[in-house]
Amino acid sequence: MDLADRKKRLRDNPHRARRKCEVRLDRVGINAGATDRQSIRSLPGFRCVRSHFLRTGAYQRVLELNNAETGTTILFYDRAMVPWVAKAKFMLIANDKTGLQPAELLAIFELVPDSRLFLVELAFDFDRKLGVTLAFVLAHALFGKSRFRARKPGILWFGTRRSAKLVRAYWKPQIAAFRVELELHSSWLRTHAIRDLFDFSLLPSLIVPRHILFCRVNWDKVSSRLLRVHPNHSLAVRNLFWQRFELHATLSFIRDELAFPNARRFLIPLATNRIVANALNVWAQKWPKHAFYVNPGRKSRPTFGNRMGVR
Fold this sequence. Notes:
Elements: H1 3-12, E1 21-32, H2 37-41, E2 47-53, E3 59-66, E4 73-80, E5 88-93, H3 102-111, E6 115-126, H4 134-140, E7 141-142, E8 148-152, E9 155-159, E10 165-172, E11 177-185, H5 186-191, H6 203-207, E12 213-217, H7 219-229, H8 233-241, H9 247-257, E13 267-269, H10 272-284
Antiparallel strand pairs: 1-5, 1-6, 2-3, 3-4, 4-5, 6-11, 7-12, 8-9, 9-10, 10-11, 12-13
């Protein structure tokens, strides 16, 4: 095999993207019906760290468990104080280096049959050599309809906690990578029918490029359009070029000031999107796609949940 063929195989291999971008399941929220606290305490691999009453909030008690091997933390809230929340809820928080594993979520869904996801947070960790920084995200990243909200030292926010999704971008020194966190809320999950871990295989086609897109402005196309329709072409180009370091500001100027509909037609996707898509597909492959039986010969007794046993 010559050098050209070797480079082509590396370029076409999706596992090559894992060295540049890693996708991890960083945090998960699960709404559940009332369940036995003692059964939560007996989760395999977890030990109880604390159990106490809460002075404020929608729940009266919290139980915290930790897995010493994986570093995963589980917060179990029960005794709801208000009627508009679930009777109980789980918050699973992963180790920064490993992310949540399928066995950990399977244990929760098996323990609590009537449960549903209300929060899924995916972490996209970019290698330093890829060149993804705060300035790069501000100048080239779009996250669906989520608007740029704030920039503080070392972190960017897109969207809000009350919107369908919230995006954070910052440098993560614990793993020496630049992290983009995509926090998907309950409204987004319901809209796209993401109910439990068996639906994670749908996420790659839903997220890329609709909710994560890296692109640049085609200035030649914008300039050509302005030359045809704008009376003061040079002034418009100058004012627009001042916004070149902020993609959201550039698109707002094209839509609002220049009155060009569909401003995204002036965008050119970057090669970073392929790296992100490959990394997301690699992550999704490790999650089960279908419910299953522990004992296939006894189909009258599914393992857990109303999803189990459906092929």
